[in-house]
Amino acid sequence: MASDISAQAAAPPSSENAFPSHRLTLRQRYPEKTPLVLVACGSFSPITYLHLRMFEMASDYARFNTEFEIMGGYLSPVGDAYKKAGLAAATHRLRMCELAVESSEFIMVDHWEAKNSSYIPTALVLDHFNHEINEVLGGAEKPDGTRVPIRIVLLAGADLVQTMSTPGVWSIDDLDHILKVYGAFIVERQGTDIDDALSSLEAYRNNIYVIKQIIQNDVSSTKIRLFLRRELSIRYLVPSAVVEYIEANDLYKAEGVPQIEDKGKGKAVG
Predict the structure, then answer these.
(1) 88, 55 in Cβ contact below 8 A?
(2) Which uninterrupted H or E stretch holds 51?
(3) Which residues does residue 36 pair with via DSSP β-bridges, in sequence order?
(4) Would residue 15 count as lying in a domain?
(5) Angle, helices 90-100/240-249, rounded to nearest 10 degrees
(6) Subunit composition (predicted)?
């Protein structure tokens, strides 16, 4: 983890419905920078090492290439209202995410989206984090005691941006809200033409930060589920605790499960 992030030695929230802030840094070390929190949305079915690496890559990128100071990171798994065939129940996905981040200094798992009984567009998920962090917790405190709002940013892979640039996939209002109000840190993914995807999002270019993958990693949840259905090993592709949880709960064994598409959560269906 980057050295400019100081994790708080606090216990996780006592209630699964409480907003987690035990690894959220609320006091800035670098007052000249803009405090920032990364939020990754998706099914995480199951969570992989690439999902976790995205946070580390984003942290390094922010530290060396921007004027942001990372204060924390969140996984926000989708709920069962957004469930498709073969997608493990929200309770399983939440638990796997929690197991995966146990050793992290700054990544937390928020239950709000997963526990909601209705579909929630990504724009509203980011609004939720903005409310909890800036209105409820009061944002970040500078060394001189003054407080400033923490910037909330969507963290995603390049394939998500590709769907954003595809007409009709996302609600125009939601897309405008996400990229104009919050912005996005986008991690390059093999097989995705990021320049082509960004060409139709030029109006938001100043709010989109592209992070190159120096070490290529194309592991995906879809491939992990395929491995499991074929009874192939997934060790060293996902955290060991997640492997053990999947085996203990006999997850992802169904045959004929179609590929799950969790992108385009801003489309006008919710």
Answers:
(1) no
(2) helix 49-65
(3) 70, 151
(4) no
(5) 150
(6) Homotetramer.
H/E run at residue 58: helix 49-65
pTM, full prediction: 0.89
In-domain check, residue 88: yes
Model confidence at 7: pLDDT above 60: no
Residue 8 has pLDDT above 50, yes or no: no
Letter string b/e over residues 22-48, b meaning 16 or more CB atoms within 10 A of that residue's CB: ebbbbebeeeebbbbbbbbbbbbbbbb
Cα separation, 140 vs 142, in Å, equals 7
Considering its fold, how many domains does the chain have in total?
A: 1
Residue 55 clears pLDDT 80, i.e. is over it = yes
Q: What percent of the chain has pLDDT over 70?
A: 86
Annotate 89-138 with DSSP letters as a single string.
PHHHHHHHHHHHTTT-SSEEE--HHHH-SS---HHHHHHHHHIIIIIIS-
Examine residue 94 and state whether it is found in any structural domain, yes or no.
Answer: yes
Give the angle 193-125-13 at the CA atoms, nearest 5°: 120
For residue 199, CA distances in Å to 73, 104, 159, 204 come to 28, 35, 14, 10
Q: Which domain holds residue 77?
A: 34-249
Q: What is the mean pLDDT of residues 155-181?
A: 92
pLDDT, tens digit (0-9, with 9 covering 90-100), for 102-129: 999 999 999 999 999 888 999 999 999 9
The answer as to whether 1 is a domain residue is no
Torsion angles phi and psi, residue 155, rounded to 5: -110, 125
